[in-house]
Write a structure and sequence with these properties.
Elements (H helix, E strand, L loop, with lengths): L4 H4 L18 E4 L3 H8 L3 E9 L2 E8 L2 E6 L5 H13 L4 E10 L9 E10 L13 E2 L2 H14 L7 E9 L7 H9 L4 E3 L2 H11 L2 E11 L13 H26 L8
Parallel strand pairs: 1-4, 1-5, 5-10, 6-8, 8-9
Antiparallel strand pairs: 2-3, 3-4, 5-9, 6-7, 6-10
Helix pairs in contact: 3-6, 4-7
Length: about 260
Amino acid sequence: MAFNKETGTLGILQYHINMVPGDVGEYILLPGDPFRCDVVAKYLENAKLVAHKREHKCYTGYYKGVRVSVVSTGMGCPSTAIALEELANIGGKVFIRLGTSAGLKPEVHPGDLLITTASMKNDGTTRMYVPECFPAVADLDLTTLLIQTAKELCRDTPHAVHFGITATDDAFYAETPEWVEKLVKLGCTNVEMESAAIFTICHRRNLRGACICACSGNLNTEEVFFGTTNGITPLAIEKETQVALETFYRFDCARKNGTLLKAFE
């Protein structure tokens, strides 16, 4: 009988992230870059570095009384899926990807915030979980709160808020001009590398998943910064961090008040 990874890894020391139950809160932010965890940690009260193994760095602390963790996923769906599965094994329940992303619609500019409602699965990881035709969709409650909070906190700032369908690609340098044009014609708002895995696994495990990204450039309008200094994206990362943490707080309040669309599990 082959080893069952799904049941055989629950509630024990997790192999890749090197954490156990109690190390993380139910609410977890998922940046790709381990160094971005340091950015998030400064917004948390009593933030403690819990673990750092491979690309997975974790701080756990509190935001307005809500226990929150931030764990880096690394780049792409494979490492993201591993981190999410292991975090779910030790108590994670509500996840927001905190990323950077290239815009595709002409009205999207560097420094804007991009919120994903669903993802186009141009990756290989999700095909191991669900049929290729199965959609990857963000949690409705969490994403609605994320959009509302972003609009409120970004009012009278340089950070415009956009939401729509995101393309999740596997191969960063394989995105040819022809491929980008195809995504633009399909009406995708932006392109990144992780959200499809997050939504798919959250659906399979009855968890909550959402995604917000800071726009780092636009592949359609060629408003990009390769080889030059980009000063606005770090500001957008700070803003999306504030938005995501406030969303967690409001989600927790809604959960306690019984105003979510489905029972929290």
